[in-house]
Every structure is written in C-alpha cells, then in structure tokens.
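Tutorial sheet, problem 5. The four components below are modelled jointly, 404 residues in total.
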Amino acid sequence: MMSQKTQTRDPELTRTRILDAAESQFVEQGFSAVKLSALARSADVTKSLIHHHFGSKEQLWEAVKNRAFERYYTGQMAMLEGAGEPDAMLLRNSVEAYFHFLRDNPGVVRLFAWTHLEGDSHCGELDNQLVGAGAEWVRQAQMRGLLRKDINPTHVIALFVMTCTQWFEAKCHHQHWPGMGSDEAFLEDFLKIFMAGVAPQN
Amino acid sequence: MMSQKTQTRDPELTRTRILDAAESQFVEQGFSAVKLSALARSADVTKSLIHHHFGSKEQLWEAVKNRAFERYYTGQMAMLEGAGEPDAMLLRNSVEAYFHFLRDNPGVVRLFAWTHLEGDSHCGELDNQLVGAGAEWVRQAQMRGLLRKDINPTHVIALFVMTCTQWFEAKCHHQHWPGMGSDEAFLEDFLKIFMAGVAPQN
DNA sequence: TGCCCAATTGACCGGTCGGCCAATCGAGGC
DNA sequence: GCCTCGATTGGCCGACCGGTCAATTGGGCA
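Model answer (structure tokens):
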C-alpha cells in the first residue's frame, strides 16, 4: 500500500525525466551541441545524477536512441500487423499512414537524420523484419498481378519510406520553392505517380 | 613578374587551405563537433589565422556553406542549360545525372543534411531558379502531352531530387535491408516507377 | 631604401565542458 | 531502531574550448 506517495525519491521517474529532457535536446540540437549542464537544468536534476543513472553523455545518447527507436518499431509493427489482405488499396493506405505518422512525429524524423549523419547503422538493422514483411507483401501482390513484376519489392518499400522521410527532413529546404504545395498536396501527387508507377504495365 | 614564387606569404592560398580543411571537417562532423584547434592543425595554420581571415567559427561555417553551395548551383545550372529540347528522354537523363552527381559528391549530400537539421533555409532559397526552370520544363512537357497533366510540376522535380538525396543520405540506414540492391539497381527501379508514374495515363 | 600594412605567430584569457568524489539522505529489510 | 545500499547532492577538477592581443614578419610601393 503505497498510494498517493509523495516520494522524495523515485529513481524510475528520475530516469524517465532525464530521458525525456535528453531526447528533446538531442533531437533539437544533435549530440555534440547538447551541454550536460543545460540538460540537467531542464530535467531538474543535478549533473551528477545523469552520470549516476547513465554513465556518460554517450551512453545517455544511446539510451535515448534505443528508447525512441523501440517505440517507433513497435508502433510500426503493430500498424503493419493490423493491415489486412493484400489488395490495391493497402499500399496506398500504408503510404498515407507512414506519411502522416512522420508528420505527427517530427522528432523521429530528426532522430533518424542525426543517426544517419553519425553513420549509425544500428537503427537500420532493427527494422529488417519490418522492411522484410513489407517487401514480402509487395511480392505477394506482384504474384497476384496487383503490382508490376519487374521491380525489386524492397525498392518499392524503400522508395516510399525515403520520400516521406525526406519530405519532412528537408522541409526547410524546399518549402519555399516556387509552386510547392502543402503536405497533403504533395502526398496526393506522390501517390498519383507512385501508384501509377507500380501498377502492372501494359 | 613574380613567377615560380616561393612566397612565404599567400593570404589567398591560406584562405583556401582553411576553407578546404574546414569543409572537410564540417561535412564529416557537423558544426558543433568541430574544434578550431584540430581544424587549425589539419589546415597547417595557427588558430589565430582562422580568426584573422574569417572572424569566428560561425562565420567560417557560413563561408564554407556559401562556397560549397555556389559550386553546387553553378554546376547544376550549367548542366541544366546544357540540356536540349524537352523530350521523353530528358527527364530520365536528368534524374540519372542528378543521382550520379550525388553519388560522386557525397560531401554535398552531408552538407545539405547538416543545414536541414539546422533549419537553415538559405541554401533552399538559392535554388529557386533551378527548381523553377525544371518545373517550367515539366510544364512544357505536360502541354506537349509528354507527361500527365494532373500533377504539380514542382512536385515532379521535388520527388526525384528528394529520392536521390535520401538514397545517399540514409545509405547507412537501408543498405543492410534484406533484398536491397546496389546504387544502379535502385536507380533503375526508381526510374521504372517514376517514368511510368509521370507518363500520360490512359 | 625605408615605410606601411596585412599576414602571421605564440602566449594567454575567462568560461565551461564532461566527469569524479566524498558526503548526505531516505526508504526498505532485519 | 538500526543498518545498509542506492539515490542524490554540491563541490571540485583538469582539459580544452573559442577568442583576444601584442609583437613580429615580409611583401609591395613610393
């Protein structure tokens, strides 16, 4: 019976407080621009406590990435398992779902970008099964004649994942391009091109 | 008459030595991870000389970006002006050219990625005319019936630019995905989807 | 030739970085 | 009621950061 505890000590809460603040700052500024002193202040803990719970700045960065990627992959995997039978609309819906997921989770996009620049391939290995499942789905759709057969299924997955990612990652770059439309307008045009491009050719 | 000079002083050469070393390190590590002391060592100049020629670390970073982007845009603009009349092959050739340009200039890709994460929109404004010219070309091709008319021309340009960029930017991420092919294999599949997707629909 | 000014140098600065440590504190087990 | 052990604290450290400055050097010009 320890309800309504006004605990002065709660190591688990402390860990998540540090992780939350760290994720926010790392996502915003990248690893080397983050100062542990400022991080401690924003998490309302002492700097020593960070070292006590995570060892070093680098280990904290790893912990942040691991937690975020795990959240990402379990979420994506759940979404993928919730998908139904391969039909013409499933691919379109998957693209839309991924696009909107990234739009609503800008932190994930930046986290990916930082790790790419670090050359960290760890996060890329985690989603092997995710991509594998998607590619397998494409392969089945190809055999059923729903998609053209002369393209690598993995490339189909990679193409729409990369397009969605880069749209949000480089938004500051191309948002002022002349004639560039809104998120939804671009997604619509991309889907037109993509769906027509992967459809069986005659 | 100052040929075969073994000049002990050459401020212009010093500037470019610093710029070259700085570009190399900034591209590799990003702004905040670069230490001026290490940079000075690698450029074989004193730290004070960097401040003498560029003022501050941030101004040096700006100078590096400006030089690199200027090189990039003049090169791209020349390539674009060298393109001939709009025909079916020009779009395909442009995609291939851009893809291979990024493949051969990995520094540019990383520079873009760093500036995206900084939220620096300066570089994105520079290529307004580049994108504008490309979009105009697409518009003409649409009117001639070479491309489908129900898509935003700017989105067509954005789509292939972003795909090429992200392919190299996130290479460490997806290069180990199961079934992923080589640079050329992916480009080939992308071109199949892209060219079929932008072709007039029936 | 001598002067001038930019190029270049090395010594130096205050600040703060990541990390460490001894001491204190607090909750849970005996 | 202590006793133990992890949680937590504040103070501290050496290193090194970006930046400054006075002094020296060397090339171009009158």
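Marking note: Residues 8-11, 14, 45-49, 52-53 of chain B lie near DNA strand C (CB under 10 Å from a C1'). Full credit if you identified this.
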